[in-house]
Fold S1C family serine protease.
Amino acid sequence: MKRRLVAATAALAVATLVPAGAFVAGENMSNRVTVSGAAPSVTIPSSPSPSSPSTGSSGNGSNGNGGSSGNGSSGGNGGSNGSGGSSDGNGTNPWSQATTSQTSGTPVSSWPGVVMVDTVLPGGEGAGSGIVLTSDGIALTNYHVVDGSTSVRVKASNGSTYTAKVLGFDESHDVAVIKLEGASGLKTASLDTGAAVLGEKVTAVGQGGGQGTLYKTSGTVTATNQQITASDGGSGASAEKLTGLLETNAQIVPGYSGGALVNSNGQVIGMDTAASSTSPITGYAITSSAAMKIATQIENGAKSSAVHVGSRAALGVEISTQSSNGYGGSATGASVVAATSGGAAARAGITAGSTITAIDGKQVTSPTNLTDVLDQKYPGDKVSVTWTDAQGQSHTATVTLGTSPAN
């Protein structure tokens, strides 16, 4: 569910919302295990049509030039399985985020406590939003805004630009906390962590369209405690289920991710997270109470099975997006395309053509599964890695994980 409402420079990253149990194809995984192929994205149409639903007929490869599978969205031109997923039978996917450069709402010069978040990614650049929690620069955003990024830049309402560090995240709940380095005296958001009221007026604020401008768009809370299955595209294995969400008819578009859903008193009741592509748009926000519970845990350094604090661990391998590419004989697992020189894997003797089959004795069944296992690890951790080499021979070695350059 990596960049559900994140806009990208030159290419708009796509994510989809599908009813629970339905899935869409395509995935980008973080560089702690580098995956062969670029981030799922599509070319921005030259003449975007905000009201047009996605067609489910195009691929999701980098800049719209290929990719391993379709994502049910319009705009791309490649992909071997461009029909996408979760179709309604008429060639449309009403739950997918439209892949256009559209903006929505009214431009605003600034908004108290809302910042614009720009990221550098292996496949390009991304753009989202954030909510300032402290005057010295601790801010809340969606995990998918910063996932896989190698650097994060934040523009505050005072016009200053800061480099930001990811303090921690909870991928399963799509929440991350970042720290703006050297910041002081920032305007903070006023939060309302009480229960939202059905029908109350709200305003969504964020970097709509990811073009360096804040926008606001108004609506109401149309439902509470909603559940969606969200994905950037991808196989069902990569889809994430989000629960307890606020639903709104505020017309949020890519770039609003991590921005504020504000009530009529100017208080933030939720964090903009996802939206449909149909017109009118149905948007979703993580409640302030749920997001702040995770943020507090991260700020306190309280690691858990869901919350990761600090840098990611790196095994130092590039993994194929396919579960099996004929590497490692008939072994099932994560196929190694390349091993980083001097990295943990290379030092253990893992080479291109190998297939990683287990970590700490637990079977690795796919590239996604390997990433999930490493999500529980930290730099400096020692792990046992089992792999089958290109000749079909099995090996096991204990390695010390390095630090990933990617968030």
User: Anything to note?
Assistant: The chain has three domains: 1-10+96-309, 11-73, 311-403. Residues 8-100, 233-237 have pLDDT under 50 and may be disordered. The chain has four helices and 29 strands.
